[in-house]
Amino acid sequence: MAELQLKSLVKTYGNGFKAVHGIDLDVKEGEFMVLVGPSGCAKSTTLRMIAGLETITGGEVRIGDRVVNDLVPGKRGIAMVFQNYALYPHMKVRRNLGFGLQLRRTPKDQIEAATNEVSGVLEIEELLDRLPKQLSGGQAQRVALGRALIKQPEVFLFDEPLSNLDAKLRASMRVRITDLHQRLRQEGRPATVVYVTHDQVEAMTMGDRICVMKDGYIMQVADPETLYERPANAFVAGFIGMPEMNLFPAVLTREGNIPCLTADGQTIKVTDGLSHRITTGDGPVTFGIRPQQLHVVAPGTDGAFTATISHIEFMGHEINLHVRLGDAQLVAVVPTDSFDTHFARGDRVGLRPSGSHVHLFDAETGENVSLGQGSN
Which Gene3D superfamilies match (predicted)? Predict the structure, then answer.
C-alpha cells in the first residue's frame, strides 16, 4: 500500500468551468479516507482524476513516491469499485475475480489461490460458478469488491459503491467493508482507501477521516468526531449530523462576560463556558445548535427562546419536534419517554440550548468563531 497526495489539484473543462479549485489532500498509508458532499461538489471528479479517468488541468496526484498525472489507469497501482459494479456479464464470478490477474499473465495456480482466498474473505465461495445476472445487488457488490481486492493495489478507489442497494443491504455492506479494512490492517496488509459518497451516514461510520467538499473546494478534513463536535464552518455544521444542525441568524452581545444572543426579538444569556470560546466581537452571527442539544422547557424559562410547534414526528425511541422561531424552522430531538404527549401543533414551548454545545459562525464568511483560541 502507499500514501496518496493531492497537491494543488485543479480541473477545468473545455468550456471554462472550473470544477476543482487547487485542492490539497494527504491520505496516509492504510487510511480509510471518505470524500463526502452534496451532488456537484466534485468529489467524483476528484476520484476520477486520481484514477486517471479524468485529465488533470493542474497540480499533482502522487501515489507513493510517483507522480502519476500522465500514467494510464492500469499503470497507477489503483483498483476501483464502481456504483454499477461493472462486472463482465459473460464471465462467471470466478473469472471476473481473476481476470485482472490473467491480464497480467499471472500463473494459473496463483490466480486460483488468490481467487479462493478472496472469495473466502468475502464469503462468496458459493457464487463462483454463477453469472452476474444470477447475483443479487449485494452479491454483485461483493464480487466487485473482490475483483479490486485480488489485485492488491496500492490504493483502492470506491465511487458511491452502495448507492444502488436498499437501506438494509447498505448497512450490512458498510460493516463488511470496514471489517475487511480492519482485517487487512491487522494482517499487516493495510489498504489505502479513498471512498466517495453523498451519504453522511456512510461517511461517519466508515471513515478514519472525512474530507467534506463543496463546489470543488475542501471545507474541512478531520475524523468523524471532530467534524461533528467542532465543525470549521457553517456548511460542515449543516451537512454533518442527522437531523442537521439548527442554524439561524442572531445578534451576539455581552452582559459583563456572559454572551447574550438575540433572535426573533428575544434575548437569552448563554453560560457553560461559551464566553471562553468566542473569537469574535459583538454583532450579527449565525447561531448553531444540534437538535439533540436543544432542550424543550416551559415558555419563559431563563436561557430559553420561546417558539411555536409546527410539526411533531414520532421516530420510535425519540420525537423530532419541529418548531418555528420567527422565520427560522428548528428541530429539537426529545426522547419519547420524556415527551409531553399533550403537546400539539400551535403550542408554545421553550427551547434552551446547551451552552457547551452552542456554535457561533461568522455571518459573512461562515467560519466557526466559537472554537476558541488555537483551535484547528
Answer: 2.40.50.100, Nucleic acid-binding proteins (2.40.50.140), P-loop containing nucleotide triphosphate hydrolases (3.40.50.300)
Name the 3-class secondary structure at 152: coil
Residue 251, Cβ neighbours under 10 Å: how many? 15
Which residue type occupies 105?
R
5 DSSP β-pair partners:
26, 62
| Phi-psi sector, 24: left (phi>0), alpha (psi -120 to 50), beta | beta
Indicate the pLDDT class of residue 187, thresholds 50, 70 and 90.
confident
Q: Which one, of 279, 289, 361, lies nearest residue 323 by Cα?
A: 289
pLDDT band with cut points at 50, 70 and 90 for residue 284: very high
**How much is the pTM?**
0.91
Distances (CA, A) of 210 to 26, 107, 226: 12, 39, 10
- Provide the sign of the torsion angle of the four alpha carbons 19, 191, 52, 118, taken in this order: negative
Percent helix, strand and coil across the chain, each rounded to 5? 30, 35, 35
Which domains are present in the chain?
A: 4-234 (3.40.50.300), 245-362 (2.40.50.140)
Average pLDDT on 186-206 reads 92
| Pairwise CA distance, residues 354 & 291, whole Å | 10
* Phi, psi dihedral angles at 90 (to 5 degrees): -90, -5
pLDDT tops 50 at residue 161: yes
Percent of the chain with pLDDT over 70: 99
The reply to whether omega before 38 is within 30° of 0 (cis) is no
